[in-house]
Amino acid sequence: MRVTEASDSVCWFMMFLEVVLFYVWPVVVLFILETSLIAIMYIVAVGISGVRHYFNIVAVIEETGTMRLIPGKSRSQTWLKQARLTKETNGDTENTETLTFLPEWYYPPQLGNTQYPSCVFGKPPSPALENFTLADMTFLSSLSYRSSSVVSSQLDGWFSPSGQNVTDEADFVDEWKLQEGGQVSKTVVFRLFRFPTGNDAIGIVSVRGTVSSMDLVVDNQLWQAAMLAQLVRLALPFGEIFTPILPTLVYSINQMQSQAVQRVSYYKAIARFVNALQENATFTGIGLTGHSLGGGIAIISAAQTGVGAVAISGLNAMLSRLSFETKLTVEGLNSKTFNVMPNRDIIPMFDDKAQNFQNIDCPSDSRNPLSCHSVVRTLCELLYTCGTGNRHALCECVTSFNFPMPLTDSDQDFDSMCANATPLT
C-alpha cells in the first residue's frame, strides 16, 4: 500500500535530472571526445528506452486501473471523452453486430481498373479450398470480434451460396484451453473454423484484434520498440543504412523489459494451439488469419509454426523478429505470411513488412486516422473491386461505407432489403 506520493513538481524535477545526467550529458561528452558513431548509437538506444520509460501505457493502466487518459474542460466533457476512449479500447466483448446479406445481389469484378493480384489465392491453405478468396479470410477475421450467438448464422449467410458447411468449433477451442490447465489467459480470444473436405477438414484459426485494455498493453509491449526504431530511422540522415542492425537493437531494448513482454505473449498460446491442430489427424490443413493485433499475432505464429497466415491490417514483425521467445526468420516471414494493407491505415505501417503484402484502396473521406482500419470496410473494398463471386453482397457496404449499390437481376428493392442494416463505422 502506498503511504506517500510525490508531488508533480518533484516528479518533473526528477525527470529533468534524469534526462540531463543520463542522456544529454553523456551525449555531449561523447561528441567532445569525437566518438560520433558511439554517440549516435547511444542517442538511438537510450532515446528509445527513454521514450518507452516515460510514455509507458502499461504503467498508466497499472497505476490508475482505468483508461482515463484524456482530460476535459468540465466533468461532463471529461466523462464523454473517456467513454469514447474506453469504447475504442475496451469495446464490447459480446459484440452482436451482424452483416446483412443480399441474396441475388452482386458486384462484378471491376475490369476497368487494375484488379488486386491476390483477389484469389494462388496457393490457398489447402488444395481443397481452391476457390478461397482474400474476402473469405477477411470475413473470417471479422468474426473473431463477434459473439458466439451470431457467428453460426453469419457463417451460414456467407458460405451458403457455395454450399460449404463451415462451422465454428467453439467446443474444440474450450476443450483445448481446459487441457492447457489455465495457461491460456482469458484475454487471448480466437476462433477455429472447420471446413469439411470429405472425411477430413481444413482448420482456419481467426485471432481477435485490439478490443480490451489488455490488448492495448500487448500492442504496446510487443511493438513499441520497433515503432520507435522506425521513427529514429526516419529522423536520421541516411537512416535506411541502419536497417540491418535495427532487429538486434529492438531485441536488446525488449530484453530490458523481457518479463513485461513475456506476460503479454498472446502469440505463445496461438502457436501452441496451431501445433495441437497439426498433430490432430482430423485436420489436413491449417491456416491463420486476424485483424489488427490479431493479424500481428497470426503473422508471428505462422512464422513460428510453418503454417500460412493472412493478416488484415496486421502489425508486421520484420524488425521485432528476434524479440520473441521462438525467434522468427526472414525466410519464415517472407514465405508464410501475407498482409492486406489499406491505404492510409496507420496500423500496418508499424514495424517493417515482409515481402508478401497487398495494398488496397480505402475510399473514405473521414479524417479519423482509424477510418481505414475497419475490417468491414476492407471486406467491402475487396468485394467491390474483386467481385462478389459466389458470395452475397452486403447492405453495410452501401449504407455504412458509401460503396456503389450492387447489381441484381431480380425485382428486389435495395432500400427494403437493407432497412434493418446495422450502422457500422
Keywords:
425 residues, alpha/beta, 7-stranded mixed β-sheet, two-stranded antiparallel sheet, 2 domains, single chain
How would you describe this protein?
Keywords: Membrane, Transmembrane, Transmembrane helix. Pfam families: Lipase_3 (PF01764). This is Lipase class 3. The chain crosses the membrane at residues 12-33, 39-61. It comes from Nitzschia inconspicua. By secondary structure, the chain is an alpha/beta fold. It folds into 2 domains: 13-87 and 214-261, no CATH class; 102-213 and 264-417, no CATH class. It is 46% helix and 12% strand. The protein has 16 helices and 11 strands. It has helices at residues 8-32, 36-54, 57-64, 75-90, 134-143, 148-159, 170-179, 213-235, 246-255, 258-263, 266-279, 293-305, 330-336, 375-386, 395-399, 414-417; strands at 101-102, 105-106, 167-168, 190-197, 200-207, 283-291, 308-312, 337-342, 357-360, 393-394, 407-408. The strands form 3 sheets. A 7-stranded mixed β-sheet has the order 3-4-5-6-7-8-9, with helices on both faces. Helix 13 links the parallel strand 7 and strand 8 (337-342). Helix 1 (8-32) packs antiparallel against helix 2 (36-54) and helix 12 (293-305) packs across helix 13 (330-336). It is globular, with a radius of gyration of 23 Å.
